[in-house]
Amino acid sequence: MVNTELDRMVSEFAQRIQQQGLDLQTYFQISGQDESQLREQMKDDAEQRVKTNLTLTAIAEAEKIEATDEDIDKELEKMSKQFNISVEDIKNTLGNTDIIKNDVRIQKVIDLLRDNAKFVEGTKED
Question: Which residues are in the Trigger factor C-terminal domain (predicted)?
Fold first, then answer.
């Protein structure tokens, strides 16, 4: 799971630097790093992401939270407006809506946690 998340993080990083006009190999030459060093640098974050996702998924299952077709359609519409591309193009790019479905489900869990959070004043320790 951590390796899969690391793959995703490296891919996201490559996309970000591509937007700045670099490719990953050029970045490695400039930074003096290689992919294994970059992955090692990202490992703690990847582990944290996996733990967070597992926790949120467990809450979704315990609370029987699902993303409906309507939820997915709303998210696709939002993405369509954000990226100025058609919903059909998004669907074609993704191949299926499983990623969107999971993202919406996790967002519903986060909303549930936020809505039910109870804030307490901390005590000042001297």
Answer: 1-113
Give SS3 for 7. Answer: helix
Q: Phi and psi of 85, rounded to 5°?
A: -135, 160
pTM of the full structure: 0.72
- Cβ 85 vs Cβ 95: under 8 Å: no
Long-range CB contacts for residues 83-89, cutoff 8 Å, separation at least 24: none
Which 3-state string (H, E, C) describes 50-87? HHHHHHHHHHHHHCCCCCCHHHHHHHHHHHHHHHCCCH
State how far the Cα of 115 lies from the Cα of 53, in Å rounded to an integer.
Answer: 19
pLDDT tens digits for range 60-91 = 999 999 999 999 999 999 999 998 999 999 98
